[in-house]
Amino acid sequence: MGLIPHSSTFLLPNLPTTDNGPALTYALIILNQRLPRFTPLLWKHAQVHICADGGANRVFDELPGFFPHEDPSDIRMRYKPYAIKGDMDSIRTEVLEYYRGLGTKIIDESQDQDTTDLHKCVAYIRDLLNLEHPNLCILVTGALGGRFDHEMGNINVICRFPSMRIILLSDDCLIQLLPSTHHHKIHIHSSVEGPHCGLIPIGMVAGRTTTTGLQWNLDNTEMRFGGLVSTSNIVKENIVTVQSDSDLLWTISIKKE
Question: Which reaction does it catalyse (predicted)?
């Protein structure tokens, strides 16, 4: 069974020239929730920037507030999304026309009501880059918080694309899928994340999970809803390892500046 390394270097001011494992190509998806304080940093690290429907309102309205001493129009031109994709039920008309005028691709998927806007954007990035490879990492802001059904829908998306590295972010934490097809080695950047963390079975019983590097490690432990779930755990080492017979969600807190 192969090993996948994980590292939250996208939360660091500068991406290291050499990291644990191959260098990643980042894509950023912005959903329609308040932008995290580190959004400009994620934007800088990403190669492509996609707004999901009303996420464009957030970029238009909120990004200038990160740069209070600069002209808002300059900020809006600097942070122009590559594309806006979704069913277009949330984006304001004036925002849509503004970005259309800047050359942003507008992709109306209102005919598709069977998938979420996040699903549409992930599929678009996959097709745009023409591959599902281990070096692509999709960062998603606005995926956590707000309506619970939206949050569950976003978690469902990362389960529907298990071979893709997708990280859901809020001001407080991140969530990503650890597929059972691999063992996982998580490099902890204690300056920006932790110490609170969790491993959560999703959709089925996790019969046997083993970890190292946590305050309360698991040793071939069963986890299930209605039984044990490893929430409110604590990172104790710089490296956490996880192996399980079921897909798990990994979550870790993000430190306030």
Answer: thiamine + ATP = thiamine diphosphate + AMP + H(+)
Report CA torsion sign: 79, 80, 82, 87.
positive
Alpha carbon distance 109, 95 (integer Å): 17
Q: For residue 185, give Cα distances in angstroms to 79, 86, 214.
A: 34, 34, 12
The tokens of 73 are what?
Answer: 């129009």
Distance CA 71, CA 14 (A): 25
Alpha carbon distance, N-terminus to C-terminus of the chain: 38
Q: What is the pLDDT of residues 69-115, one digit of tens each?
A: 999 999 999 999 999 998 888 999 999 999 999 999 999 887 877 88
pTM equals 0.94
Instruction: Answer whether 54's CB lies under 8 Å from 90's CB.
Output: yes
